[in-house]
Amino acid sequence: MSVDTAMQNGERHDFSKFQPIIPIPDLLAIQLASWESFLQEDVLPEKRENKGLEAVFKNMFPVEDTRNDYVLEYKHYYLGLPKYTEKECLERRISLAIPLKVRFVLNITDENDRSKYVQSIEQDVFFGNIPYMTESGTFIINGAERVIVSQLQRSPGVFFDQNFHPNGTKLFQARIIPFRGSWVDFTTDIYDCIYAIIDRRRKFPATLLLRAIGYSSNRDIFESFGLTTTYKISNKKDLINKYLLEDIIDKNTGEVIAETGLLISDARLKELKKAGILELTVAKNEESLEVQMLKNTMGKDPTKSTDDALRLLYQHLRTGEAPSVGIARIFIEKMFFST
């Protein structure tokens, strides 16, 4: 057989001296297998594994309104057929896509018992068209073939870094990357204040975030870092010139007799002892860098309680005032603690 005839028949002749040690693998297998695993197109809806698109829906649903009047549950999804062939998409300069329909169940809860449903409505909802992969592992987008380029993704974890300000001050950064959810960055400035940044938005004092997630008072924040110690009020030498970490309240009248941040003096100790206060909790080693940075950050923080912090953080993230503290609390809990 001549070379021309062999080329016409699609045959390939190998003139190399050394034969390959292993056969060349199917280079499209990774893309095709990944796409098949993502869609599970040939699997019955009730038998799909919890992966790919199925896992996305199951992780996002059910969803409910703020008053828990309605609960929207996901059942399964359906995939249709492409409206046009690959050739038609290339000629018409359109995208190769398939319709996605999702079956939802809308549950109406009982006003007296939110765990019970008084009515359930099941319906298929057209979710839109999604791109469809060809047999050659490509996508056709607006009449042009595109391929998926694999890239590295930052793995979840906590990462630390440092750099220098132009004036020579060392600045520190920490980044928390969850498997799913908002990224949280912490950074210091030249004035030894600590700021938090959520999803690369505007920065705010880090203690505001701590108050919003439950560390309401200055004492709670210092205790979370192990920076507090408690002394009996008779121990003057260890309390003089220290600062109060919380409001001191008269047990008899309920009146605040000393506010957070006040300097403890001999006269103030006598007043507190007269009011029946037996011991005080103050910061350990107030000259240490850790204590000074927390105090500097608290000086930038306008909030004094968890409720104040929830309102301000909600406004910071949603650019609008929260309807209530409860709604702000649910929003923050879903952002950081809900899977």
Automatic annotation (TrEMBL):
GO CC annotations on file: DNA-directed RNA polymerase complex
Domain RNA polymerase beta subunit protrusion: 27-167
InterPro entries: RNA_pol_bsu_protrusion, RNA_pol_Rpb2_2_sf
4Fe-4S in keyword set: no
Keywords: DNA-directed RNA polymerase, Nucleotidyltransferase, Transcription, Transferase
Main enzyme class: transferase
Alphabetical GO biological process terms: DNA-templated transcription
Pfam family membership, one: RNA_pol_Rpb2_1
SUPFAM superfamilies, per the entry: beta and beta-prime subunits of DNA dependent RNA-polymerase
Enzyme Commission numbers on file: 2.7.7.6
GO MF entries: DNA binding; DNA-directed RNA polymerase activity
UniProt-recorded name of the protein: DNA-directed RNA polymerase
Organism of this sequence: marine metagenome
